[in-house]
Amino acid sequence: MIRIGLIFGTVLAVWAIGFIPRSRRICLGNWSRSTPPSRKVEGSLYLAFAVIALNVFALVQNLNVYFAVPVDSVPPFEPLVYLLMLALLMSLRFSNAFRKIEELSVQLLKADKLKDEFLARTSDEFKSPLHGVMHIARSMLDNANHPPTAEQREKLELITSITGRLSQLVYDILDFSRLKQGELAVDSMPVDVRPAVEMQVRIYSFLCADRNIRLENRVPEHLPYAIADESRFGQIVGNLLGQRGQAYGEREHCRHSGGESQHD
């Protein structure tokens, strides 16, 4: 009877101070709806029962020690209830954390899918105008009625090369998603290094003309062919030239010979 009375009194005290807000809202009805809801602690019900069990055990032992009240009729089950409530609390928090991780993983996958779709749509939007510029330049080069001059032909060929490079960059954006999935294919073939470097030198010579930077291709003509993906090889050379062009000041002379760069 002592244990039952202590447990009942502790439950009433916890309910009265509002430690279990759900019970107060159920019991008080409409009055609780008008009050702002309090933030419920995760697993507060388990904590409440654990505290009740611990307090009852302490009170019973104090009554037995200090007041000689016999409490041996019922075995002490409060420590078991306390440990059980803590175990349930830990399992609840672990399950909630796991559920939250699953929700965040689903959101991350959706965001990654939206990003890939955005890149695909953007790449398609870029390809159409670039191909249009390339076809216009080629039609002007192949115009037999009004053949371009040597200077115009050189600039039109440069426009064709630049638009082709930009188109390749657009395809590289699409290759990024394939690379993550392990589906990127590399088209290895023998590549003549000097013409590949010469094409990039011509492009960047035109881009660096306003800075008085002169690029010179000194790759040997009889250099053995390199086994590589031709488009990506040209992209690597172009990136190197672009980085060097940004690092050099005006009126500088840059020479490229077989992978080495010198400037003066």
From TrEMBL:
Top-level EC class as recorded in UniProt: transferase
Catalysed reaction, written as an equation: ATP + protein L-histidine = ADP + protein N-phospho-L-histidine
UniProt GO MF annotations: histidine phosphotransfer kinase activity; phosphorelay sensor kinase activity
InterPro entries the record matches: HATPase_C_sf (IPR036890), HisK_dim/P_dom (IPR003661), HisK_dim/P_sf (IPR036097)
Bilayer-crossing regions: 6-22, 43-60, 80-98
One cellular component (GO) term of this entry: plasma membrane
Keywords: Kinase, Membrane, Transferase, Transmembrane, Transmembrane helix, Two-component regulatory system
Top-rank lineage group of the source organism: Bacteria
Pfam family of the protein (one): HisKA
Domain Signal transduction histidine kinase dimerisation/phosphoacceptor intervals: 114-182
UniProt KW Cytoplasm keyword: no
EC number: 2.7.13.3
Protein known as: histidine kinase
